[in-house]
Amino acid sequence: MRTTSPVQDSGNHQSTTSMDMSDNNDTLHQSFFFGTKQMTAIFNHLPPPHLFHSSSTLQSSHCVFMEVICRTIALQIHPTETLRVTFMVDVRGKPGLNLPPGYYGNSSVSPAAISKAEMLCKNPLEYAVELVKKAKARVTEKYIRSVADFLVVKRRPPCSRSWNFIVSDTTHAGFGEVDFGWGKPVYGGPVGGTSFSSPYALFRNGDGEHGIVVPVCLPVAAMERFKVELWRTTMGTNGDSHVVEPIKISSML
């Protein structure tokens, strides 16, 4: 897959220098549903070595690749800007770490896949897939211990928001199985995303289809471009084919 929608050319550089648009009141929140149809369309953009239909973890990862590319195009990021996608990698079971039995605290690190905007948008989807695979492969025992030392010395500095997009996959957190005595929840997961992050969650749409829901926050104009690009890439029937209504939470108490 090669995207036909170019990032903004160097002669008309109007994009900001940061993914953080929290001070921009002209933003729109929408959630997008990735079911069987959408996931099949994404897989069709990948060569056989990258087809992992049986793994829901990799399915959510492929949603990440598609979202990042569509966001880059929608935000009209300058081709020479350096983009980062930061994600969590669980270190439980890594050789040499030997976490004590029953440990339930944080046990993850946050590597980043890095690319120029132009390279991300002009290359096939497998280019983004390989970037993330290489970033995950760097998470060795030495890397993990180095991160731990860094966090102690630097006292947990905040993540950079300079074109850094943070992804959190909660599809295996078990939110949908929590039962406080009232039965299984209709929805369990994050409330929404921010301008620089998207938490992924399991979701069942109005037709009863199970899939992944992705909350997106973008400036209004960028959101429209995002929807068009996502529709074009995943072969929807119209620009709103993936959009789901905001989650409404009510209580019987």
From TrEMBL:
Annotated spans, Disordered: 1-23
Domain of life: Eukaryota
Pfam families named in the record: Transferase (PF02458)
Any one GO MF annotation of this record: acyltransferase activity, transferring groups other than amino-acyl groups
Entry's family note: Belongs to the plant acyltransferase family.
Protein name, entry field: Uncharacterized protein
Organism the protein comes from: Camellia sinensis
Lineage, opening ranks: Eukaryota, Viridiplantae, Streptophyta, Embryophyta, Tracheophyta
